[in-house]
Amino acid sequence: MRKILVSSFLLALIFILQVLGLLRGTNERIDTLLPSPNPGVLTILTALGGNLFFFAFVFFAIYLDVKKHGKLSKETLVFLLSAFLGLVIVGILKVALNEPRPRGYGGFSFPSGHAFRGGIIATYSSNRWKRFRIIAWTYAISVALTRLLLHVHWFSDVLFSLLLAPWIYNVVKVTQGTWLHLYRKIVRKLGISFLDIKL
C-alpha cells in the first residue's frame, strides 16, 4: 500500500507540474541537450514499445498460461486489465491536454504510449519472472530513452508513463478482491473459459 501512496503522490506532482506548464523549461533543456543520432537503429528499438510488439507480448503471455493451466493466471489477468486501463488513461490524457511534441513532430505528447507499454510489460515481467526484473526494466527504460533521442517526447511524458504503469498494475492487483468475482461471472456466462483464472 505504501508503494501505491508514494506512486500516487509522484504521479499527481508530475501531472500538476505538467498542467501548470512548470516542466516546460526542464523538458526543453533536456531535449536540447540530447543528441540527434541516426534514427535507423532507434526506430527499430522504439518499435519494442509499439502496438505490434505489445500485442505479440500479450498473446505470448496468454498462450503460456493457457498452455500450462488451461486458464489465465491472476498475474496475467492483472496485467491485461492494467494495460487496458492504462492505455485508456494515456489516450484520454493525450487528447485532454493536447500537449505538442518536440520539434513539430505531429500528434500529442503527454503521456508517452510507448513508455507506458514498455513500463507495463516490465512491471508484469518483474512480477511473473522475478529473476529477469533488471532485464525487464532495462527494456522499459530503453524504450523511453528512444522516445527522447528521437525527439518525439518530452522527459515528463516518459517519466509519467514509466510511473503510471506500475501504479495502475499495483492498484488493480490490490483491488482484485472487489472485481475478480464479477470478472469470473462474466467470463463463465460468455463461455470463454480459457479467460477464466487459475485459483
From TrEMBL:
Q: Which UniProt keywords apply?
A: Membrane, Transmembrane, Transmembrane helix
Q: Which residues form the Phosphatidic acid phosphatase type 2/haloperoxidase domain?
A: 77-173
Q: Which residues cross the membrane?
A: 41-64, 76-97, 134-152, 158-180
Q: Could you tell me which CDD domains the record lists for this protein?
A: PAP2_like
What GO annotations for molecular function exist for this entry? sphingosine-1-phosphate phosphatase activity
Q: Coiled-coil stretches, from where to where?
A: none
- Say yes or no: keyword Membrane present: yes
Q: What is this protein called?
A: Phosphatidic acid phosphatase type 2/haloperoxidase domain-containing protein
Which organism was this protein described from?
A: Pyrococcus kukulkanii
